[in-house]
From TrEMBL:
One of its GO terms (molecular function) is calcium ion binding. Keywords: Disulfide bond, EGF-like domain, Repeat. This is Delta-like protein C. Residues 5-43, 44-81, 82-120, 121-158, 159-197, 198-235, 236-274 form the EGF-like domain. The keyword Glycosyltransferase does not apply. The keyword Disulfide bond applies. InterPro entries: EGF, EGF-like_Ca-bd_dom, Notch_Cell-Fate_Det. Disulfide bonds join C33-C42, C71-C80, C110-C119, C148-C157, C187-C196, C225-C234, C264-C273.
Amino acid sequence: MLNSKVNRCIINPPCQNGGTCTSIGNSSYMCRCPEGFYGFNCEKMDACSRLPCKNGATCSRTGNNTYSCKCIMGYFGQNCSEVNRCIISPPCQNGGTCTSTGNSSYTCRCSEGFYGFNCEKMDACSRLPCKNGATCSRTGNNTYSCKCIMGYSGQNCSEVNRCIISPPCLNGGTCTSTGNSSYTCRCSEGFYGFNCEKMDACSRLPCKNGATCSRTGNNTYSCKCIMGYSGQNCSEVNRCITSSPCQNGGTCTSTGNSSYMCGCPEGFYGFNCEKGNA
């Protein structure tokens, strides 16, 4: 009697790609596949055996020689080889917002007060250091310069030149700035005071006949007359003193501006006692 049992492993070896065949009965068998292959006859290639998924990703077979990778956070791409820097090593400093733009590339949107590729630099102008309408320019990390408008000076344009901003010198006075908001006025002739606001009445030379003029206030004065003169402006003449008109020992009495009368001694007469009795 003929043996009718067939050993497929010998008659027609079914296991492909180097698989090991084991007969388990008439025409029945099983294949033990080498690494990288699977399927009943080891006819399918296990793409995951080549370890295509990188950076800790999980590989799943999806068919013959096909696969998919499940990436861990911070990696992407078919093989999880592309890096999301925003997650793996956040580069944006000082509260900046990171946006991934591709493998290891990114952009940072900086918080107010910071700038630079990674928002690593401080924008000193964000603190508004420049005053009085000045323009602030960044000159480096946390440094700035101010361009002052006319009438202001100093590092932050906080110093005021009063001579320009609100000219204080009146009546044609010349203003000189001496520091922040301080100044001096050189007054035009006829004026005085800190802001040249007062009128010097003596500048009009009201006191006559050699009298001395003294200011007594804004646009007021007094005259100190020399002997022989009187009146507010020393314009009234006492002839009895300035040009003793009474002759021959006559006594002079002033009766007003330049007027007088003479008291003549016995034996003389006339307006100036210039006449004698025969």
